[in-house]
Amino acid sequence: CDDLNKIVHPYGFIFCDISRRPHGPPVVGIVKPDIGLYRIDDENRGNIMNFKCKNHSSDDMSSYVAHMGLVYLFIEVRKDPDQDIFTDPPKELPPSDRSSTIDTWSENENDGYRVSALGQNAHYAHLIQTRQFRTCVFSLTVSGSTARIMCWDRSGVLVTEAFDYKANPQTLVDFVWRFVRANPAQQGFDTKVRAVDSQGDRHSFLAAITSHVQLQLDLDPETDEKELKCEVDRHFDPGAIARLTIGNRDVWVSRPLWVSRTVVGRCTVGYWGVLCDTKDVVFVKDVWRTNFKDVDPEGDILRDLEEKGVEHIPTVVCHGDVTTEDGSPQTTHIDRFVDDPWVKNLYPQEGCLRKIVPRVHYRLVTDIAGYPLATFKGSRELLGVTFDAFNAVMDAHDKADTLHQDVSLPNIILYRPEKEMKRVGYLVDWELGCKLSEVALRGNVLVGTPAFMSFKALKVQGHVHGLKDDLESFIYIVLYGALRWLPVKSPFGLGSWLTGFFSAPHPNRIGDGAVVKFMNALERTYTSSLSSTQSTQVIEWLNAAMDLHYNGVANPLWDDGKALRKMWERFLARELPSNDRCVNSVPGMKIGEGHSLHVTYTVATSSKDLYRHRDKPPQRLPRPTKRLWIVDDDDPHPATRAVKRLRTGTGSQTP
């Protein structure tokens, strides 16, 4: 680090050895890079010193905790040159031929190591992206005396050919020198985010969130003080509040409810926010949407549905693409290389790079800031709020000719309107919503959440999504909710039951869950064994819905949803348990439990930095499987997620 620090010190930066341990509690699988670049100007020096490794003096600036909320770029070091992640072409090849072999993989004992090492670097980039407001992340990977520069954004990763930094250090020196002299936007920060320093603004944010939590959970500040504080802390960190400008409105956000666990793709982040002018609590969705002309932003879809009279959907407060300092949208950059000659030589097969798509940074604010369906209190609420979401699907189809295409447990929200006694169900996340006339035109694309998709959508190649598929998803939502949070039993064992029915564990075959769902539709192989002493009405509803859907053969009465609506209304007219909730814990099954993840961010602006920390690291890591480079979560089925290898032909990529 000493030689590099001679370059970066004059600009207020320092390279530190952060290989000793990560910041935060010990969690299996948590790893850390070897070297991190930090900022150490007078204002931020104290923040860095607070995260120093133990057993080092206060004057020792060479070793720190690997706090990824503070790192500007990272370096991963391997002593052996044979441990290089990538393989370059022979040096004697002319430039015109080099690009055709830069991606060559040698079949040797290092093959598995390379995949693991790439996954490790992808994990580091992911940790920075989930702890900071970022547009891209720069890194270096070093193997012996050779190094490569990497740039990660939401469409992919760009990698240089290897260069010998000992024989020719100028490439490394130029990159580091340019990086520390670059402005925050060029370094990969979202400069449209501002830190909130005013004590009055922090108090207003806290007061609004506290009041909203009391309303939503019907809590008394005196008798439920501990629970109230716990719930407020899910959304509020006193030292970490940011101000976002979205459309023509400003909104405060703090801790997100969830973050994406992939390096590339939509990478959705969700918050409870507070409007700066009215102090209303809203929901803020931050996403990197696909940048295609024929795909409408979610805000436009919701406003069209609202104009057509669709109920039980959130109302758009404001939305829009995030812009740069010059007013242009924040977009990904890696996808711009797809049409370059060296890339076409590298990937001559048609459609090989279809997963590397252009993306634009987009934020949406809606009025419904509620709790996930997983928090329902009993059978009455489970069937009631899912019926509300069912009506949203029916309204969208009948009034607006629109399909949701991702009806799932995480996309149903419980919300208590002011002065109302009960919570209402809202169907959210209309990003995949599509007009009926356009469904077939989008091609053979698997969309939705696999656990709750229809068996035909999972099993039948070329299946065109329809209303009956969205309706079938409600069966699996109620079934999953009953198995996880109602006193429902099965002799098969809950863990294997849920894994078989709602997961697709085989990495190379589509449709494991589809087979189980289809077997159950034919013969009730699984659900016929369900029993309960308190929640028998939910089991009766499931049997009635499954008989209406498929009883040996497909039932045409299912297709338009009218028969299902009548049956559902009859059940809701009955006396249903309102407080029969219990928790059936199943390791590894946390679908729809968004409140388990607390994350806070680093906000970087041209004037100052706001440092934050994350108190619960993710349990799952983005791990590419063999011969895959970067996992894209646009294809919701894990068995069909593609990865693409994309890197530059020669030279280095600098800010």
TrEMBL record:
Classify the source by domain of life.
Answer: Eukaryota
Please give the name of this protein: Uncharacterized protein
